[in-house]
Automatic annotation (TrEMBL):
Protein name: Glycosidase
GO molecular function per UniProt: glycosyltransferase activity; hydrolase activity, acting on glycosyl bonds
Keyword Cell cycle (UniProt): no
Gene3D superfamilies tied to this protein: Glycosyl hydrolase domain, family 43
Family: Belongs to the glycosyl hydrolase 130 family.
Key words, A-Z: Glycosidase, Glycosyltransferase, Hydrolase, Transferase
Length: 365
């Protein structure tokens, strides 16, 4: 078996079967097929819920948006737009620096063999697409958790109305029901624990903002985006946990910014969670994957962790996609399954393709 490889790439998406066909007049292409939610199906096969970013060809100062069941193109005045990033349009002249997107994201279920070595089926008929005004710019970055007898999936829903976290539920991980918004503030990485603790459901969250209050000089921690915790009685209503979760450590700049990666799974030592740390530099920073084990009864307590990355960006994996690449320094881990003597970990590589990595369980000790 392969240990570290790409399993799904932009050219694997059949745009003739895209949900945008017949509902969008503009010509599009696949900007990326990446950041997959990941779980094991009742059949034993694996499911990747792939984020497909479908972009405008020759976008220029145009952006793509869902509106009442159709996909429309907005034309922005050239003197009001910074279009240097192929993914976004920065609208200038406003104090709040709003963004528009040159692509719109939808979710494509891709079924893999039980060992993750090959694609068995691509379920275009079960794609998850924008369905409400709060998803006008798309549905992004799914995370799938198996909780009891059901699967739950968090997604980031993007629109001019809000940047929020939405929840889907399923009894078989194939037919999903949108439950609506569960976190209304800006939150990019909500991960629901695969099981309860203390009779409650738990989740990791990562609120965004522009103001961070400093720790005192010499403190163990660094101010900035961190991984918080929340609890819920029903998976729909979430209360922030009073104690802090995982925080950027002052001893390393590699985690100057951090966010959740894989939904925490229960091991003999506690809850295993993989998360991303971002070192300043390159285009958007250098994204790497790290691990921590959290106490099974109080996940605010870290039992074990490492400053050494578990997974690094691998530009060689996307070398054959050089003409499509715009990032080289990003691995964004989004899912994990138990595969016996190892874990199989799913990531987005370079905001472009889906990567699978086998991690020996002895590596996390």
């Amino acid at each position: 078996m392969r240990d570290d490889f790409l399993i799904f790439e932009p050219q694997d998406v059949d745009l003739s079967r895209s949900p945008l066909r017949g509902r969008c007049e503009a010509e599009t292409f696949v900007l990326g097929a990446f950041n997959p939610g990941f779980t094991r199906l009742p059949s034993g096969n694996l499911l990747m819920m792939v984020r497909v970013a479908e972009g405008l060809v020759d976008a220029g100062t145009r952006s793509l948006r869902w509106e009442n069941g159709r996909y429309v193109v907005d034309e922005w005045p050239a003197d009001r737009v910074d279009a240097t990033d192929p993914r976004i349009l920065k609208i200038t002249g406003d104090p709040w620096r709003p963004l528009a997107l040159t692509s719109l994201s939808w979710l494509l279920p891709v079924e893999l063999s039980s060992d993750g070595e090959r694609v068995e089926a691509i379920h275009y008929d079960r794609a998850i697409v924008p369905a409400a005004s709060y998803q006008a710019y798309g549905v992004e970055d799914p995370r799938i958790s198996r909780v009891g007898n059901e699967w739950v999936m968090t997604t980031c829903s993007v629109s001019p109305e809000r940047l929020c976290t939405t929840l889907h539920r399923s009894r078989d991980a194939m037919e999903w029901t949108l439950e609506g918004i569960v976190l209304d503030h800006q939150n990019k990485d909500m991960l629901i624990f695969e099981g309860q603790s203390g009779g409650r459901y738990w989740a990791q969250t990562r609120p965004l903002g522009e103001t961070w209050f400093a720790y005192p000089p010499g403190a163990e921690w660094r101010a900035g985006p961190a991984i918080n915790l929340a609890t819920s009685p029903d998976l729909l209503h979430w209360k922030p946990y009073e104690k802090p979760g995982l925080r950027p450590h002052a001893a390393t700049v590699s985690t100057a910014r951090m966010g959740g990666g894989t939904p925490p799974i229960l091991t003999k030592r506690g809850w295993l969670t993989l998360w991303h740390g971002v070192e300043p530099g390159a285009e958007v920073g250098i994204y790497r994957t790290y691990w921590s084990i959290l106490d099974r009864d109080d996940p605010s307590i870290t039992v074990a962790t490492e400053h050494t990355p578990l997974i690094e960006p691998a530009p060689q994996l996307t070398g054959h996609l050089a003409e499509s690449k715009y990032l080289d320094s990003v691995v964004f881990t989004t899912g994990i399954v138990d595969a016996g003597d190892h874990y199989l970990v799913a990531s987005g590589e370079a905001d472009l393709a889906c990567r699978l990595t086998r991690i020996d369980k002895g590596r996390i000790a």
